[in-house]
């Protein structure tokens, strides 16, 4: 493609509303443009990268026997009502009514549509297992779209669904899918980890996320410093063994703590350790009030609360709701004397001796509080976030944190949707059985940001060969020089015939502008046709390393073949 014929609107100034490196560079290099908050157009360079990621995903999906189809983005509400997600999915679901006032949703995912399709078409065990996938635009009404393509309201996603007659069959497909995802992210050259995760609004039990390590990641990964254990911080199990202090239990006493309400304030006021306090937080769990207790130096993990209680919606009560239930402000609530609210607690709370907690009165706290003597807990469980330095759940090493961008997610759904939507088949004995399902997603457009974030440098984007918009960028330094113009166009045409993807900078621009744009685009190899063409010499530059080579024109094809072969063979190329 000749640069004079395509559409690459570059920016010289740093975009004011772009917070992270990848977003800034994708805008500056003319890959994307914002239409509205969280909604982007993919310009020619961006579209080419997007298509190449899609092709890699297709190749790996087809390699494990998954078959592509395309489902509608517009989904009738009755399917979501069948599954029970019409209201439980929450405000992220974009809802609308047609002219006949029939409710619809713009699909953020397609469990309901695919389940209804298979339910209506497949009746016998002989046609299972089956894995189907699509690559399609999805919609989520994000409260705060940010970081460009990383968190948008409209995005491109690969979603796959598998249907089985047994858990063993699901396990087999799940493992194949995990390997396919590993292949995809390896081909993209990403530094990533597969981590234990929560299934969220999708449902199901066994699930893994694929996280690209990045400081701008919105998820925290807890991993072992001595093994391959890794989990989303929401799902990392706490295996710390607690011990009670050998100390005489003292009499419960109420003390005035004035305006001191937070753990930090109370600790400083009473001159005690955070480990000697009990933090009390009121949650609304599927419409029921639940008081959750953790030790003062720990934080409540609402995902663990949700999983423990097998709940659909878990929300921290507002200050107003808390005051209505307990008659005091948040910082003064506690479990002593509470019998009108269900109480659950983290394991560590059980080992607090002569501790401190709120007294359910303004400016009052209890001291010398002892669990089971002074209040009753309905259930103890692992309810806190793991901390750095905690023992790794697999028994090997200590926990370390890293930030990650979620780019893929695999779920064992089981019968979550097939049971609700009556997707059944007849087994070999003619008996009706519920289908067992798996679900597997990859954020295609999100991967553009992940690759750009990990691989860009101070000059611009640096694409691996596998998804670069072009393999080679040919630059004619001086378009008014007849020899440069002729040789530059000749090299361009020759490389095109050899099936290389080539961008020719034939613009009547200054050399500095062309070189700056070339660095910004991140195309793997640059061929500069400049003054030395009169001596039969061109310059090759490798974008990733900055290495330059002077090559005779008659040897260019051979040297370029070698170079691009090496780049394809290296990780992420």
From TrEMBL:
GO biological process entries: prolyl-tRNA aminoacylation
Matching Pfam families: HGTP_anticodon (PF03129), tRNA-synt_2b (PF00587), tRNA_edit (PF04073)
Record keywords, A-Z: Aminoacyl-tRNA synthetase, ATP-binding, Cytoplasm, Ligase, Nucleotide-binding, Protein biosynthesis
EC assignment: 6.1.1.15
GO molecular function: aminoacyl-tRNA deacylase activity; ATP binding; catalytic activity, acting on a protein; proline-tRNA ligase activity; transferase activity
UniProt subcellular location: Cytoplasm
Catalytic reactions of this protein: tRNA(Pro) + L-proline + ATP = L-prolyl-tRNA(Pro) + AMP + diphosphate
Annotated ranges, domain Aminoacyl-transfer RNA synthetases class-II family profile: 33-464
GO cellular component, one term: cytosol
Membrane-spanning segments: none
CDD domains cross-referenced by the UniProt entry: ProRS-INS (cd04334), ProRS_anticodon_short (cd00861), ProRS_core_prok (cd00779)
Keyword Glycoprotein: no
HAMAP family: Pro_tRNA_synth_type1 (MF_01569)
Quaternary structure (record): Homodimer.
Function: Catalyzes the attachment of proline to tRNA(Pro) in a two-step reaction: proline is first activated by ATP to form Pro-AMP and then transferred to the acceptor end of tRNA(Pro). As ProRS can inadvertently accommodate and process non-cognate amino acids such as alanine and cysteine, to avoid such errors it has two additional distinct editing activities against alanine. One activity is designated as 'pretransfer' editing and involves the tRNA(Pro)-independent hydrolysis of activated Ala-AMP.
Family under the similarity heading: Belongs to the class-II aminoacyl-tRNA synthetase family. ProS type 1 subfamily.
Recorded domain comment: Consists of three domains: the N-terminal catalytic domain, the editing domain and the C-terminal anticodon-binding domain.
Protein name per the record: Proline--tRNA ligase
